[in-house]
Structures are given as C-alpha cells and as structure tokens.
Amino acid sequence: MGKDRKIDHVILGLLAHENLTGYDIKKMIDGAISFFWKGSFGSIYPALLSLEQEGLVVRAAEEGTEGAREKTVYSITEAGRQSLLAWLEQSKAANDLKYESLLKIFFGGIAEPEVTLKTVRAFEKETEENLKLLRLCRDNLEKVLDQKDHLYYYLTVTFGIRSYEAYLKWCREAAALLKKAAGEKSSR
Amino acid sequence: MGKDRKIDHVILGLLAHENLTGYDIKKMIDGAISFFWKGSFGSIYPALLSLEQEGLVVRAAEEGTEGAREKTVYSITEAGRQSLLAWLEQSKAANDLKYESLLKIFFGGIAEPEVTLKTVRAFEKETEENLKLLRLCRDNLEKVLDQKDHLYYYLTVTFGIRSYEAYLKWCREAAALLKKAAGEKSSR
DNA sequence: GTTTAGATATATCAAATTGATATATCGCTT
DNA sequence: AAGCGATATATCAATTTGATATATCTAAAC
Fold first, then answer.
1. How many CB atoms lie within 10 A of CB A54?
2. pLDDT at position A84 over 90
3. Is A83 an 8 Å CB contact of chain B?
4. Is residue A57 pLDDT above 70, yes or no?
5. Do the beta carbons of residue B103 and residue A84 sit within 8 Å?
6. Are the beta carbons of B153 and B32 closer than 8 angstroms?
7. Which of A144, A187, B37, B186 is the most exposed place for a label (fewest CB within 10 A)?
C-alpha cells in the first residue's frame, strides 16, 4: 500500500527546474498546472518534510541569513531526480476526474429541464473564461517555443485548449436539446 | 466546513431512481458514470449510515426475508429528494481533474522526448478504448432517447465522446511535435 | 509617520476519500 | 465436493482538501 503520494511527483518535478519554498510550489501549481492538477498547503508541507527524510530533497543553502525573514528553500537531490525519472518512465498514469457539473446533468431528470440548462450555461461560462486564459498563455509560449522546457508546457496548454473547445461545442448541443425538452414539456 | 461529502449527491441521485444496496451503488457508479466520477466502498458505506441518521435515506422494506442472504436495500426519503433538488438547483459546480498523464508530459523536459512520446501513446491507447465503449453506449441510448431520463444520460455520454475525440486529435499533434524534438536531438 | 491591506511563509486539523484488506455467503461449474 | 467468481458489508491507514491560525514584509493610502 504505502507510497502513494502523487504530490511528491509534482514537488520533485518543480524542484528539478529550480529551488523553491513550499509557498512557491503552491504558487507554481496554481499558476501553471491548476487546469489539470491541484494541490493544497495541507499536502505540500507534510510531503516536503517526508521527502527530506527520504533524502529526495534537501534544504538549500541560504544566502544572506542576515535579518532575512524565515523561509525554507528546498532543492532536489540526485536520488530525487532518479525517483522522478523512474516515475516518468512508467508510461501508465491514473487520470481521475470529478466533474460535478456532469453529475448534475446526469441526475437532471429529477428536476425541470431549465434547471439542467442553467447548469450547462454556468459550465459554458466557466469554460469560456478558462479558455481565454489558456489562449493567452499559448500565445506567449509560441514566442519562446524553441527553448528547452517550453515545448512540454506548450503541449499541456494545447491539451487544455482542445478540451475546452470541445466542451463549448458540446455545451451548445446540450443547450439546444434541453431547450427542446423544455418546449415539449410546456406545450403538452 | 462540515457537510462536504460529494458522494452523498451520487447516492441520493441514484436512489431517486430506484432502491439500491451499497454494493449496487458501487456497481452503478462503475458502470454509468465512472468516466467522470468515481467512488469507493470506503466512502459509500459510511455515507449511507450518515444519510440514514440525517433522515435522507431509509432501509427499504424487505420482501421475503426467509432465508434470503443479508443485505441492506436503501430508499430515498422526501427529505432526501429535497436535498438532492437543492443541490441540483445551485448551478455552481466544482470540476476537479487529476491528469497524471498531463503531469508527466508537463515534466517531460527532464527525460528524453521518447519517454514523453511513450506517455502520449499510452494515453492515446487508453482514450481509444474508452471512446469505443462510450460510442457503443451512445448507440444503444439513441434507440431509447424518447424515454424520460435517457436524455440526461445521453448528454453525459456525448460529453465524454466529444472530449475523447479532442484528446485523440491532440495526441496526434503532440506525438508529431515530440518526434520532431527527438529527431532534432539525434541529428545534432 | 502610521495605519491598513495584501502578499509572503509555514503549520495544523477535521472531514472526506482512496485503495487495500478481511470476511462470509451464494450460485455455478467441474 | 471442491473451487471460483460474484454478491455484500465493513474497516483501516494513508492521502488530500479546505479551512483556519499565526506572523512578517511591502507598498499604498491617509
């Protein structure tokens, strides 16, 4: 059973690029990968302590401790890099989704079609906003695509864009079917 | 804080349609909604006890207890139906995704492009299989679309199909870019 | 100059969830 | 009669969330 902490891979992956504090890690997750992965302080800080004990990360040397505010910058070790690589190389991956919107749509038969139509509209609006952000992101990335790691970031962003575009197309179809259902109901 | 159990809505939604045991609920989740929502026995059984205490479900009258194997069939109450409806009517919804595949792709720069290409291929294969199943599902549903609840089931299935189709399109683009990156590397 | 608001930084906790394991019965085949 | 897979419930450690608490630093506002 033991060793099932997904957050470890996120932390090691981010630290493989640069030294970070727990707070920095949270910011990175929220900024760069939140559209397909989330993480909270409550999992990050305990995981950092645990990774340190396992020797996969170490506290980075502090420059100028003088009067500096207390913070713990972490750095990945060679063992950490190996662990990360081992995870990357097993191409199997668990993709777990929890779409509360779809759950509401699935159970829509319990309420009037208008209720589900509202759920679809809310989902559509949220998706439009997310899509707008990701497109901005992509436009910026395309200017620097030649640089080493940017291809990989670009790939995840285009995944998000393709997905969101498909969601929006579906939203329009779904809304049309629900309006039809609402119409049939009222004209009986 | 309290009352944050998403599994409650799944259970109530399923019970709104028919009486079920905890085991039945697990089977329903696995069969009908697993492509966008999962649930384990470890959350279902405790939730059923809790919902019973809150008066949202009751143990259904057993027919022919004679020699029948022990099982607990649950039934939704009027209060349960109201609770479910209240949840449906607030169109806000939390959609939480955990794509381990994308996480591996995001951190792909640490390994050779071939490693990420393998991850994309594995994701593509899994998606193709899922898509095949959902298309079968849709074909069967289209024959009975006139029936009450089937529209809502159909909507979630088409959501899955549209998403998976978009994933596959992206997989091909991603594979092409990764092959190019691998080629540039070897010809330096 | 000082209050105040927002960002930085870490820690902790109850509640929810996962994934595994344990236990036992039933129905079917060998 | 043995064995296997499905039915059925329960439990537990480990993980994760989301909230809350605490404290400092920075910059703007007054």
1. 14
2. yes
3. no
4. yes
5. no
6. yes
7. A187
Contact (CB, 8 A) for A83 and A13: no
Q: Which two tokens stand for residue B48?
A: 């059923």
Tokens of A23: 């707070």
Element (H, E) at A98: strand A95-99
CA dihedral sign of residues A119, A121, A125, A131:
positive
Is the shortest CB-to-strand distance from A45 to strand C under 7 Å? yes
**How deeply is A106 buried, as exposed, middle or buried, from its count of CB atoms within 10 A (0-12, 13-18, 19+)?**
buried
For the CA of A141 and the C1' of D26, the distance in angstroms is 31
In chain B, the residue whose alpha carbon lies closest to the alpha carbon of A85 is B111
Residue A32 structure tokens? 């760069």
Rounded to whole angstroms, how far apart are CA atoms B134 and B127? 10
Cβ pair A119:B174 closer than 8 A: no
Gap from B28 CA to D6 C1', Å: 15
User: Which are the contacts of A45, defined by CB distance < 8 A and separation ≥ 6?
Assistant: A22
> What does residue B37 show for φ and ψ, rounded to 5 degrees?
-160, 135
CA triple B78-B83-B87, angle to 5 deg: 145
User: Helix, strand, or coil here: A36?
Assistant: coil
Tell if A24 CB is < 7 Å from nucleic strand C. yes
The pLDDT of residue B47 is 98
pLDDT digits 0-9 by tens, A31-40? 999 999 999 9
pTM over 0.85: yes
